Fold this protein.
Amino acid sequence: MALISLSPAQHQALALLQQQLRRWNSRCNLTRLVEGDDYWVAQVQDSLWPLSRMSPPFRGPLQGVDVGTGGGIPGLVLAVALPESRWVLVDSVQRKCAAVQAMAGALGLQDRVEVVCERAELLGRDARYRGRFDVAVARGVAPAPVVAEYLAPLLGSGGLALLYRGRWSGADHRALQQAARQLGCRIRARERCVLPANRGQRHVLILAAETPCPAPYPRAVGIPARRPLATASSPPTLEANP
Ligand SMILES: C[S@@+](CC[C@H](N)C(=O)[O-])C[C@H]1O[C@@H](n2cnc3c(N)ncnc32)[C@H](O)[C@@H]1O
């Protein structure tokens, strides 16, 4: 598996993040994936592998947003890997946001990482955040068409949304295509990788913003999840075949 290369200092920062996750896990349940391959493969490599598929590669002072960051994954890992990038990490759960804020500080990322405790549906209507980002990411937050509605309004012109997914079917692909069209985006690419240490198959779906996201989106809090713009109507297949 092609990986992006990390400097010893970046590797050290990720080891420090692991310590921080252990520490904060004992106070509030952030993630169970903190030891050995659970951390280095299922968290770190899973966060980073899509970077190796970006063409052109992500470089320079890009503005990113991680929606539903939970314990700061993938946002904190991406902030470490892309040293000129600035990130807004968003979650609706206050205790998670407090932990992520403290972890970002411990990693010395406080100048490049802002933590916002907010619903994605409200962030996407806030003029400080709507249409502002070069890249928007989400892992493990909701079905893909719902995540697309959270991320698309945040993208600026030429912005990209990266939807981290596990298995991916033709029905998933068609549903995302349908949602993306309504949001002024198109699916630019679908990338796949098999993580080592039996961590299984992952996909990333890359959406490109083609026009500004239409004003009705995101809809009111809870509506994107209750009434997704599209659903994968047929049962998922083992292998994507869009
Ligand atoms: C399963 S966790 C995944 C966390 C992290 N991204 C990861 O991959 O480990 C999903 C997170 O998304 C947050 N979330 C779900 N819906 C949200 C919304 N509409 N707005 C903000 N946060 C949301 C939840 O609070 C939760 O922390």
About this structure: The CA atoms of residues 107 and 184 lie 36 Å apart. The chain has a mean pLDDT of 94. The domain at 8-226 is CATH 3.40.50.150 (Rossmann fold).
